[in-house]
Structure formats: C-alpha cells, structure tokens
Amino acid sequence: MTIKPVKKNGQIIPGLYDIYIKFGPTDKDKFRRRKKFINDLEAIAYEAAVRAQLGLEAKKTSPYTINAVAKEYKSWMKEHILGKNDKPRMLDNYVLPFFGHLLPDSLTSRLINAYKEKRLAQALNKAVIAAKKKGLPIPTKKPINRAINLELMCLHSMIEWGTKQKPALCNPLNFKIELLPYKRQIPLVATKNEIDAIIDNALDLFHKSLFCAIYEGGLRSEEARRLKPEHIYIKEQYMRVYGKGNKTRVVPLSKRLVTLLEERLKECGKEYLWDNIKSFKTAFNGAKRRAGITRKITPHVFRHSFASHLLESGADLESIREMMGHEEISTTQIYAHTTFKRNKKLIERAFYF
C-alpha cells in the first residue's frame, strides 16, 4: 500500500492523493482509490490506519514511531544532560503532538512545512486573542521563527541521536530540514564601569565571586551552577567549564577572578563552588540597584559583555568562540556587529557635530 500526491501537468494538486493497495504478488493485483486529505500528515495517518486494518506490515524499515524514539531520547537526556534542558518541553508541547505517531522514515519536507504553518497559525491566533482581551490592535503576524527553528533542530537532534544507537532506533533523514528566516538581535552589552559597579556592590564573597566568574569567565548561569571545586585550577589559572550538551571547555582566569575564587574555595562546600544559587537573580538585582544602574542588565548580559570586551581588546573571533563554548563561529560573529555599532557612534561623535 502506498499513498502518492496526484499530479497534473507535472504539478502537485494540493489535497488530492492516490491510494494504491496491493492484494496479490503482481502489479496487476492492486487497485487505486483517490481521496482528499488536508495535508500529507492526514494522508500518512490514514495509510497507517488502513495498513493496521488490513494486517499489513509497516512500509518503512524503522520499527519505532517518533513517540517511541522520543521516549528513549528523553530517558537518555535525563541521565546524561545536567542542568537546564528545554528539549523535553519542546518535544512534549510541540513536536510530538504533530509528528509523534509517525515513523521517522515518513518525514518529508512537505510535512516539515506543514508543521511550520501550523505553529505560525497557532501563535498568531493566540496573539489575536490576547490583543482582543487587552483592547490592543489586532496583530497580523507573530514572530516566533526562532522558537519554531529550535523545535525543528530538536527533532533533527533526536533523529540523529536515534541513528547512532545500537541497534539503531531510526534511519537518518534523507533531506535537509529548512529553517525559517531569523535575524538574531544584536545583544545588549554593559560597560566595564557598570559591571565593576555591580560586582563591587555585591554584599558578600559568595555573590561577588559568582558575578565576577560569569563576566570574566563568559559563563552561562547554568554553567556557574554546575562548577565544582575540582573544576578550578588556581595554580594553573584556568577553570574547566561544562556547557550545553555536557561539552567541556577551558577558560583562563583573570587575576581578580583568581583572587576571588581562591577565597571562595576556602569556604565553599565539597560538591559545588556555589552550593545555593537560588537567590542569584535577587542578589544581582540588589547589587545593580545599589550601584545606581537602571539599564536592563542581566547576568546573561555579563556573558555578552565578556565576548564584546574581548573583541574590543583585540582577541580574535575563533579564540572567543572557544571560550564562549559556541559550536558555530557564526554565533560568535554577532559580537562583531556589537563592536561595529559602538565604534560607529564614536566616529559620529568625533566627526559630526
């Protein structure tokens, strides 16, 4: 049994499909039925249901549905990925309700496009309802391209993981998932004076050393949470950071950070360098308030500032990429735009009155 979109003059007729059911050993032993479906997803679901009714085996070679692969994948992530991980939420809330019942081999570019369209429509509908409740203008679109791209990358990562298991849970995708266009925003960067003021206004060594490590180590908040005393090498002046996907990187320590960490190591517990970090944001906002800073500076802005200040000091992008733990150099290049924007303002200030 197979389902194929109907074509006319080489063009696919949207929503119309031919269903071929074979009931004997030769090509003559089959009949065709033409049926309308909303999209490929509905057609494939219908095919799976008819196959089950006829007692036919699954057409594809993978014995696992995407739901089944996801169950194994989430179990593996729970065991191997420490700290914050948004993939289970993306899978459960968005990816699996749409793709879950399918075999991985059934995925096509058209199905991926159908998913994009559905998610964009859902987001717009939600935004319209919210606008009506608040008496605001009705939006015509809701920019969630980045969220949808992350969901599709999550699906791709799961399939890729499944192909590497022994035995394999699924086959590799035979097409490239095309992502929606997305222009990454230029990150906000704090000045060195602002950062020093926040660090100096921390009330204790715990938070002062933590804030300094996030800035001068370029750490994500979750990476700071996971730092252990054995990850700090005072004599050699570097720390070993465990980032996204448990990938490790080595980050050199500044003189100020060496001094603060050396003191912190004397009073911290044996398990984590900062064993209770729940009050982190409250303490950060308090230090910012005491420093008299009103700009929207967050702990993650410290990380952005680390990269931008390194670039301004003459560091090359590849070195910054390694210290930031970026997988692609294109992610790091956004800081070049930040520096360019700031330099442009300086030029305008100097030469245009």
Essential attributes:
353 residues, hpI Integrase, Chain A, 3 domains, three-stranded antiparallel beta sheet, mainly alpha
- Secondary structure category: mainly alpha
What CATH calls the topology of the largest domain is: hpI Integrase, Chain A
Strand order of the largest sheet: 1-2-3
Per CATH, the superfamily of the largest domain is: Intergrase catalytic core
Question: How would you describe what is shown here?
Answer:
The chain has 3 domains: 2-54; 66-163, no CATH class; 192-351, Intergrase catalytic core (hpI Integrase, Chain A, Orthogonal Bundle), CATH 1.10.443. The protein is built from 14 helices and 6 strands. The protein has helices at 40-54, 66-80, 87-99, 109-134, 145-163, 192-200, 205-216, 221-225, 255-267, 280-290, 299-312, 317-324, 329-332, 334-351; strands spanning 2-8, 11-22, 30-36, 232-233, 238-242, 248-252. The protein starts with a strand and ends with a helix.
Q: What's a concise summary of this model?
A:
The protein is mostly helical and 353 residues long.
Task: Record the SSE blueprint.
Elements: E1 2-8, E2 11-22, E3 30-36, H1 40-54, H2 66-80, H3 87-99, H4 109-134, H5 145-163, H6 192-200, H7 205-216, H8 221-225, E4 232-233, E5 238-242, E6 248-252, H9 255-267, H10 280-290, H11 299-312, H12 317-324, H13 329-332, H14 334-351
Antiparallel strand pairs: 1-2, 2-3, 4-5, 5-6
Helix pairs in contact: 2-3, 2-5, 3-5, 6-7, 6-10, 7-9, 7-11, 11-14
